[in-house]
Amino acid sequence: MMKKIRLFRNKTDNWMLKVVSLCLAVMLWYFVVGEDQVDINMQVPIEIINLPKNLIISNQYKSEIEVSIRGPRSMIQDIRNRNITRPVDLSTALPGTIVIRNDERSVPFPKGVTVQRLQPTNITLQLDQLIQKKFSIKAVTEGKPAKGYELRQIQLDPDHLLISGPKTVLEKGYEISTYVINLDGLNHTTTMQIHLNLEPDLFELLGETVVSARLEVREVMEERTVKNILVNARDAQVPVTVKPSSVTVKAAIPVNLIKETPELSMLFRTSAPVKNGEWPQTVKVNVTGVTVPGHDPVKIIEVEPPEVVVTVADGPKDSEK
Predict the structure, then answer these.
(1) Is the pLDDT of residue 321 over 70?
(2) For residues 122 and 115, what is the distance between their CA atoms, to the nearest angstrom?
(3) Which end of the chain, C or N, has fewer beta carbons within 10 A?
């Protein structure tokens, strides 16, 4: 009797499990099959993963694939809200050309979604060694500064670039230069931002690149010897006599200033510092150039004689010898 009861219970339990399974199957069919089916086209980005640190992809490749899928409306809506990608694992890649094949299993869509079409079916990647190389930057100019001025130097900041990229690209012997800098009419030192004129391969690596260019412009200087520049005794508390009373100065003077100055001796100031109580005394002659607004300073090269003798004007007294 007990065996019959147990057997009846087992049959009852099995029957209930079958009913529950049938209900679940019907519900699943309703949500997966019975729900409206929708067709859409979508762009799926290519995701490169595990690229070795010593490698770089050196060619242009399509960064997305176009996929046509079909599935229940709720699933399609969920897929639209998710960031689904086509992963490409390059953990075992070596330098060279590899071809990645795309098929219905390439994109991780959920079950119930059917891939109907996928383009492109292949992706070609060119893998190259990743290296660094230093490139000097050359400044390119045209024209001339204003009359009486000259370009002393151009300082670029930075004056070189350290570029990381494919070995096959960076070892082509490229030179990096600026776009043309126009010097016409320039009469002062200035700083400007200038773009680099890059080869297409380097432009792909760097994009638009700007450097700072400092153009140092100075007046053209001309050496002149100016005679008969009077020496002034300084700090003398008694009348004194200076011998010789004038000096000859060799100096570098801006050519524009030379044209504007009727008497070049006007451009110099001299002095002989006197120590009272010691007569006669030999004093060094200090010569400076006059600062004229709008012009570079006058540069003293040589003074002849470099020293003068200073005595009391009416002659030294015995008590002062």
Answers:
(1) no
(2) 16
(3) N
